[in-house]
Amino acid sequence: MPSPLSSHVTSTLFSSGADPSEQAIRTTPVIVRTGPLASIVVRALRAPGTVGAFGGAAESQGSCLPRNREPAGAYALPLMHLYLVRHAKAEKAGRDEPDATRRLNAKGRRQASDLGSRLASIPEPPRLVVTSPLLRARETAEPIAQATGAELRIDERLAPGASAADIREVVEGEQGPVVAVGHQPDCSEIAHALTGSDPGFPTAGMLEIELDA
């Protein structure tokens, strides 16, 4: 049986505007070998305010596997940075209102603005923001693109029902960091498919993943 395609994924979850019950840090270092040069390193951090530029404070030492200790061979693979984002908090649908037209509520607009500020502050901000065509996803993506100066694209492949294969197609051939804004349970299923773990996605939750280019 042929060896599976090699993949190297480093992921970190950040949540924006989490409620107090989500403030505790949860870290899950995992290494899964799927081929001769393959490894998956998963880092899940649930607390805003604990992770470098995303939370405004230094990351706690020893909370996850250092990159210089990744398995031999993994460092040689070209990587592409992906930020997988669940849309921010949206209004509840009215009785006759289509799901696709639900807008962000006030909290969601704050969350989207915060995501944009956080991503704009990192050393290499995203160059491209790709979003589901649904209104709540577009309203999450727009402040991110505006804050970072990234190109904004609407892609039907990120509509509800998106898969890991769809994500790989969306980012294929792109240069530099990409933000993909989607929905649940798609984000959890994509995360699990790419990393072997689902850290959970609150509204405006963001998972940082390094994919093979």
Please provide a written account of the structure:
By secondary structure, this protein is an alpha/beta fold. It has a single domain, classed as Rossmann fold, CATH 3.40.50.1240. 24% of the residues lie in helices and 18% in strands. It has five helices and seven strands. It has helices spanning 52-55, 106-120, 135-148, 164-171, 186-195, and strands spanning 8-14, 39-42, 79-86, 128-131, 151-154, 178-182, 206-212. It has a seven-stranded mixed β-sheet with strand order 2-1-7-3-6-4-5, sandwiched between helices. Helix 3 (135-148) links the parallel strand 4 (128-131) and strand 5. Helix 2 (106-120) runs parallel beside helix 3. Mean pLDDT is 73; it is low at 1-10 and 18-76.
Q: Which key phrases capture this entry?
A:
alpha/beta; globular
